[in-house]
Amino acid sequence: MFSVEALVAAFLALMLVASIISHRAKVPYTLVLVILGITIAAASGLSLLGHGMIQQVVSQMSTFFAGLSGGEEGGLFVGIVVPPLLFEAMIHVKSSDLRAVVKPAIILATIGVVISTFIVGLILWKIANLPYLVSFLFAAIISPTDVATVLEVFRNAKVPSKLSTLMDTEAAFNDATGIGVFTIILEASATFGKVSLLSATSQFAILFAGGVLVGLVVAFLAEVLASLLSDKLSQTILTISAVYGSYALASSFGVSGLIAVAIVGLYFGNFTIRSTIGPSTKETINLFWEVAAFLGNSIAFLFIGFSTDIFRLAASIGSIVLAYLAVTAARAASVYPILTVFDRLGEKIPLRWRNVSMLGGMRGALSIALAVSIPATAISLADKSELTTLVLGVAFISISVQAALLYRYIRRSYPGEQVPSVESLNARLSKSASGIESLERLHEEGGISDEEFTTQLESDREELQDIMKEINKNLDPRSILQQRAAELYSSILNNPVFRARSVFRNERDLKYKKESGDEKNSTGEKSS
Predict the structure, then answer these.
(1) Do 96 and 44 belong to one domain?
(2) For position 401, which CATH number holds?
(3) For the chain, what percentages of helix, strand and coil (3-state, to nearest 5) are there?
(4) Among 91, 198, 202, 428, which residue's CB has the most CB atoms within a 10 Å radius?
(5) In terms of Cα–Cα distance, which of 462, 479, 489, 352 is closest to 409?
């Protein structure tokens, strides 16, 4: 038997290996995690890992990932892994960007998901000849864009901030729609279709609005409590309590916990952190949730890899490709009309934004968790197996092929937004440093208040942090080795012991040369 420590060490080792491979091969970190998960799961299934401790750890990891999707509506995956991803993304959404795109984002997250569900279900039912229930359950599961995948992609993709906010907001809110439609279809199957349209619509409205209300109440109470606390750790723990507390409270009331978490994130990012929490505490909170989101994201994509049986997908490649084409067609049928209408109404959504939204509708871990969580009493074992295979196949194509197409399109469409040059980084650094100096001078002269000075200084500090991140991100490993070698060499040269030995060695060499010279001279004199 092995220890939990070995399991945690194996998980962290996989993350580290994936990170190194991603950096060296210039491949998305998430895709590397999925491939590693698939490879290890396949090797375990073929008994290529032997029967020692490695096999036991892999078996336990598979059990862990299988347990994440246990229970209803995605189980522990939705309740534990997704909230940090949502909260960390939402606290960075600016209110100005959100106001500009909130209407199309909400329509995509609600009506868009319903349209997509109807189209995918109809295609699979009428064209692929899948059973009615399987077709529409699959459609409800696969229609929402996956929050983990989308947030990860648009965290790394260099696009305008409003476009990134549009995609992040849609992903944050459409999960509730997908889960709601999924639950309604399951209830309809259990009652032999006796669910009216009015009942389904009101049920979804309560699910959505209730989540918003719970999120606002929890966020406001957390802000009040934050004003009573002063230390970093207490305020950081308060954010954890707000995130998981809002999810648990909303779920206990039968409304959307994910919507509640998203609202808490938006409230914290635009109100609490700016008005109640100090700059140093804000940095601590941001760092904590950045790490939490990274861990959650890693778990999500390893979950996809460990859940995917590559041999099973290969045997059903025809059905998977047809399902993926149906999902793509449904995404296009919902994205282009909705965003075009908003563009005509003056929301200024250019065609490139619509194309990115179309390609950015990726599926992943949440869909897999929902597929696995379908009760055994709802559909037959064979139908559930086929449905799960289709979900896994579409998710894999989405993460591997579609993500690559999206990155390529973004690089071509937004060249100015991509990795900055050294010159531009130097210019930003000089501008930021100059701005801070001017701000300090203005404050010393009494031109601005202490509060205005602190607020502006915090903004300038964030700009400096962004510049340093870009510099570190593009630093070549060989440069690091050369730098460390130069530092080591310099420290050796400056070491007192080394310097003393060098002086002694030099004096010895001089003495030896002098003695050698004297000996040669005396020999020469004798011979002469």
Answers:
(1) no
(2) 1.20.1530.20
(3) 85, 0, 15
(4) 91
(5) 352
Q: Alpha-carbon distance 3 to 5, whole Å?
A: 5
DSSP one-letter string for 158-185 = ---HHHHHHHHHHHHHHHHHHHHHHHHH
| SS3 assignment for 106-165 | HHHHHHHHHHHHHHHHHHHHHCCCCCHHHHHHHHHHHCCCCHHHHHHHHHHCCCCHHHHH
- Give me the pLDDT at residue 423, please: 57
The pTM for the full model equals 0.75
453-465 pLDDT, tens digit each: 776 766 666 666 6
Q: CA 180 to CA 133: how far, in whole Å? A: 16
Amino acid 236: pLDDT: 93
Q: In the listed set 417, 435, 452, which residue is the last one of a domain according to the structure?
A: 417
251 and 340 part of one domain: yes
Question: Is the CB of residue 78 less than 8 Å from the CB of residue 304?
Answer: no
Q: Domain boundary residue among 451, 475, 499? A: 475
Same domain, 460 and 377: no
323 and 246: one domain? yes
Total length of the chain? 528
CB contact set of 457 (below 8 Å; sequence gap of 6+): 279, 436, 439
Q: What is the pLDDT of residue 1?
A: 47
Is residue 43 packed enough to be buried (19+ CB in 10 Å), middle (13-18) or exposed (0-12)? middle
Spatial contact of 244 and 215, defined as CB atoms under 8 Å apart: no
Going by C-alpha positions, the residue among 97, 242, 232 that lies closest to residue 169 is: 97
Q: Do residue 372 and residue 515 come from a single domain?
A: no
Residue pair 69/373 in contact by the 8 Å Cβ criterion: yes
Residues of the chain with pLDDT under 70: 1-3, 45, 47-54, 69-75, 190-197, 416-430, 455, 457-528
Amino acid present at 390: L
Question: What is the distance between the alpha carbons of residues 82 and 78, in angstroms, rounded to a whole number?
Answer: 5
pLDDT number for residue 29: 83
Task: State residue 71's pLDDT score.
Answer: 62
Query: What is the reported pLDDT for 337?
Result: 95
CA Rg, the chain, in Å?
29
Q: What is the extent of the structural domain holding 426?
A: 422-475
| Structural domains counted in the chain | 4
Residue that the structure tokens 């109470």 belong to:
221
Same domain (yes/no): 302, 268: yes
For the segment 39-79, what is each residue's pLDDT rounded down to a tens digit?
888 887 676 655 666 677 777 777 777 777 666 656 677 78
- Judge if 413 and 427 occupy the same domain: no
74 by Cβ neighbours in 10 Å (0-12 / 13-18 / 19+) ranks as buried
Structure tokens at 97: 């960007």
Q: Are residues 246 and 359 in the same domain?
A: yes
